[in-house]
Amino acid sequence: MPQRIENPMSKAHPEFIARMKDLLNNEKDYELFCEYCNKPTINSIRCNTLKMSVKELKTRLEKKWKILQPFKEEYPEIMIVESSLLPGELGKAEEHVLGYYYIQEISSMMPILALNPDENDIFLDIAAAPGSKTTQAAARMNNKGTIIANDLQLSRIVSLSTNLQRCGVTNTIITQMDGRELCKKLNNLNPKFSFDKILVDAPCSGEGTIRSSPRTALNFSENIIKSLGGIQKSLLTKSLQVLKINGELVYSTCTHSPEENEAIISHVLETYHESIKLEDIKLPKSFKTRQGITEWKNTKFHKDVKKCARIYPQDNDTEGFFIAKLKKVGEIN
After folding, report:
1. What is the reported pLDDT for 1?
2. Is the pLDDT of residue 183 over 70?
3. 308 carries an active-site annotation
4. CATH superfamily of 42-104
């Protein structure tokens, strides 16, 4: 395993530094951002309630580690291991191997909490591998309903399949296809196949993952951001076409880039203003989020993008994320 880069923000690409300063628009906030980006991530896990109750898992783990439940009343399955751990200890533990818990960054858990799929839903996870959010959705659905877990790359499908099996997920069908092509095929069926809930955890530049992938700050490129925008727009648009009327879709990324976040949401709101509405996002009460921004580099976005949620590392001691929740109220062609 490559050695972790110490203080990645001190070596970050100048363009990335300038962009983050513009986004945060506050020197103290930027300094705090850098401080947290230079720290390793906390050890967060999610109890897999398909195999073990939260109470049972906590009792087992507390025999060897100190366990904190940051959202105990609302989401007790989310846990932090506060003890000092040896390299790989969390993944090698018996409870992990048996699928009693899933190692997952806390901000990565938020899109499924916002979407809140239930037992009666037909749910599409359009870019599912390696399966963190798919297994989380399956647990919230109590292995009922139906999940289509799709990904493009075979190597990632292998990881997805392994994690679903380890976690005892039985309500999921795996497909391997470009998400846009999958939606096109489903949309052309007669009758059309559609979903109650969809997660578009879109491929992105990954600016929010500096703590776990420090090279992200060093290898920053605006060309990557520009190249991803078209993919993200078409992936979201195609997904909305196979969403049921009154169905809900969460679009999420692990980047701070407005071009991959608010710009994408603004595009679909303006293009399909009579068919798509932006919803308020419900997350744990103590979990801090910031509103979406309405302007970036002289480009104004749709006013409703303020309902989106920006998650910065310094606000919750997590990695960075972006979440938008949309509701379909009319047909999209």
Report:
1. 38
2. yes
3. no
4. Sun protein; domain 3 (3.30.70.1170)
Instruction: For the domain covering 8-40+106-328, report its CATH number.
Output: 3.40.50.150
Q: What is the pLDDT of residues 76-85, one digit of tens each?
A: 999 999 999 9
Q: Is residue 181 over pLDDT 80?
A: yes
Give me the chain's average pLDDT, please.
96
| Catalytic residue selected from 47, 204, 254, 308 | 254
| Spatial separation of the C-alpha atoms in residues 24 and 22, rounded to whole Å | 6
Averaged pLDDT, 207-222: 91
Check: pTM over 0.90? Answer yes or no: yes
Q: What is the pLDDT of residues 246-256, one digit of tens each?
A: 999 999 999 99
Give the domain ranges of the chain.
Answer: 8-40+106-328, 42-104
